[in-house]
Amino acid sequence: MKNETTRPVKAHCPICEQHTDPNNRHYPFCSERCKTIDLGRWVDEKYKITRPIEQRDLEEGVD
Ligand SMILES: [Zn+2]
Question: From the CA of 10, how far away is ligand 1's center (Å)?
Fold first, then answer.
């Protein structure tokens, strides 16, 4: 058995499931491309959720 204090962190890109690690500047993604895809997903979700929130904001704005 070797020194186990430096265990390699195994991680997989949540987009394409390729291997990635914390040393990757795009971690937890494997590449900028996957990072952008994930960001796009969030922006898309936010956009959908924003609609009802806008209505609430209007109600709060009405005094
Ligand atoms: Zn990826």
Answer: 14
